[in-house]
Amino acid sequence: MSTISTDHPVSAVRHTARVTTESPVMRGVLIGAALVFLGLFLFVPLVAVFAEALKEGWETYAASLVEPDALAAIKLTLLTAAIAVPLNTLFGLAASWAIAKFQFYGKQVLITLIDLPFAVSPVISGLIFVLLFGSQGLLGPWLEQHDIKIVFAVPGIVLATLFVTFPFVARELIPVMEALGKEEEEAAVSLGASGWQTFWKVTLPNIKWGLLYGVILCNARAMGEFGAVSVVSGHIRGMTNTVPLHVEILYNEYNFVAAFAVASLLAILALVTLVVKSVVEWKTTLHLAGGEQNHEH
Amino acid sequence: MSIEVQGISKAFGKNSILRDVTLEIPKGELVALLGPSGSGKTTLLRLIAGLEAADQGRIVIDGKDATHTSVQERQVGFVFQHYALFRHMTVFDNIAFGLQVRPRKQRLGKAEIARKVNDLLALVQLEGFGNRYPAQLSGGQRQRVALARALAIDPKILLLDEPFGALDAKVRQELRRWLRQLHQTLEITSVFVTHDQEEALEVADRIVIMNEGRIEQIGTPHDIYHYPANPFVYGFLGRANRFEGPFDGIGQLPAHSPFVGYVRPHELEVTRHRVEKNALQATIQHVYAIGPIVRLDLKRAEANEFFEVEMTYERYQELNLQPHETVYVRPRTVKVFTGEKGLVSAR
């Protein structure tokens, strides 16, 4: 009797498995196609970057990285990211908090506005800042009078990067916060916790993986941004060149080894980002699974 | 501590949730806010806690106006419908939370906090669960952690939002009894929201019946059940048959007087023959004969009115009733309400 009852579901499963699965040949073709595509468009270029960078040996590679203009570019990129990422983290926290926990007029408009930098071409975003702050621009004369330089200077680069990267954290956090609801915060407040205590002890631990994920993506984009920064930078070597812009300049000068050496830094950044991202994603799924269990009755 | 709600109104946008609600809860009572969903009972509870702000009216706690004091200052224990336990903290840390967020000067020492948390764990019968996470607990256990967490801050009043709503029937029964006992030990003024009349009747000292943002009746379970103020309360507390006059089927009233009367299904007596001349004639539509109580669906003769009768299984067998048979029905008591004035006549 027991053998019959256990046998039955198994055969049923086998039956459905046969129905919903492709033939082995088809499977092989599909997986193969995906792998070939990945290899051609991701793996080969990645290998090519490092191969080209190391073509003339480690010494030339190292020399092109510590060269003053390259160092200046790296410094500027780090500075830009160091300003843009924390600011956008704060902004993302505030925006997602407001959207997830409060009802107000214009909420939908705010969500749309947050997505705007994704919808607009980065070049256009850069141009907007030139039109606003450039010498021919709206605020140009006033800025010149007060001797403030924004376009073709570091502030312009930071502004453009801020604009381009500002959806990342907010986009990541809005669904997380909406899923959490506000009951835990209300519980904390009813137990006497202040606003700050509630944030640090209750909200932040619950959103930390989502937040970290958003910050990583934001950082990757801040360091790798080309279009918008290119428009506002002015390409002054050693002054307003970020790493991506420096790569372009070197490449245009047929200095391939140096160009690829600097580019390899961005490639490494991408690889590190991917690894951290997968770890965080894995952690997030674990956390969410725990959360779901928590809401099961 | 006593709670006074004076003329409270609250609207969300254009939706009026509470309309001029006035209520007094004496010290130490266990009060149920009972009503259908959307009646405003949860909003009223959140207003007392300070989680919502009233548009109009005052909340007085322990004789002091608390209308504009913050949630933190009100020092109320609030137990949320879905527990709202901090999922990243252990049971111990959950219960200790309210003690640990106090300003440094008022904060207890580590050992004292640990002692208090352990006492509370014992009180809610969860000794040895301190190191677990909420996800590792059953629904009933989470509910008790939520209660212990709320009690940790020595609340002046305890507010519970649908405390048993998310639990299965058996656990619910146990917890109900347990909450009743706990209230007797702690003697803390408590208000709980429920939509389950049985729960309210069984647990509460007093019941506040709410409907569409207004209070329909306040009273002890006995009073509410036996002397309902209006048809809504009557209908909400149990199954009800509505008879509309004029007709002379119900003996206690003058013949042909226009009225609306209400009778509970078990208050109708069924006979196979006309014993009294003013008994109602009806045909049996359907019989539900499962369990100790048998329910009959009846259709009144010469009227398109349907009503329900309940009787014991023994009585059902004795009568040997069959579907589509004609029977005679006589109410033992009838409740009659006129307009807003409430109870007019009942036997």
Description:
- The complex is a heterodimer of chains A (297) and B (347).
- Chain A has 297 residues and is mainly α.
- Chain A has 14 helices and no strands.
- Chain A has helices at 2-20, 24-53, 57-66, 68-101, 107-119, 122-133, 140-145, 154-165, 167-180, 183-190, 195-224, 227-233, 243-252, 256-295.
- In chain A, helix 4 (68-101) packs parallel to helix 9.
- Mean pLDDT of chain A is 81; it is low at 1-14 and 291-297.
- The relative contact order of chain B is 0.12.
- The model of chain B is unreliable at 339-347 (pLDDT under 50).
- In chain B, a hairpin with a 2-residue loop joins strand 4 and strand 5.
- A six-stranded mixed sheet of chain B has the order 6-7-8-3-9-10, sandwiched between helices.
- Chain B starts with a strand and ends with a strand.
- Chain B is built from ten helices and 19 strands.
- At the A-B interface, helix 10, helix 11 and helix 14 of A face strand 6 and helix 5 of B.
Keywords:
heterodimer; A: 297 residues; mainly alpha; 14 helices; globular; disordered N terminus; B: 347 residues; alpha+beta; 27% helix; disordered C terminus
SSE inventory with pairings:
The complex is a heterodimer of chains A (297) and B (347).
Chain A: H1 2-20, H2 24-53, H3 57-66, H4 68-101, H5 107-119, H6 122-133, H7 140-145, H8 154-165, H9 167-180, H10 183-190, H11 195-224, H12 227-233, H13 243-252, H14 256-295
Chain B: E1 3-12, E2 15-25, E3 30-34, H1 41-49, E4 56-61, E5 64-65, H2 71-74, E6 76-79, H3 91-100, H4 110-123, H5 139-151, E7 157-161, H6 169-186, E8 189-194, H7 197-203, E9 206-211, E10 214-219, H8 221-226, H9 231-236, E11 241-244, E12 260-263, E13 268-271, E14 280-288, E15 293-300, E16 306-312, H10 313-319, E17 326-331, E18 335-338, E19 342-346
Parallel strand pairs in B: 3-8, 3-9, 6-7, 7-8
Antiparallel strand pairs in B: 1-2, 1-4, 4-5, 9-10, 11-12, 12-18, 13-17, 14-15, 14-17, 15-16, 18-19
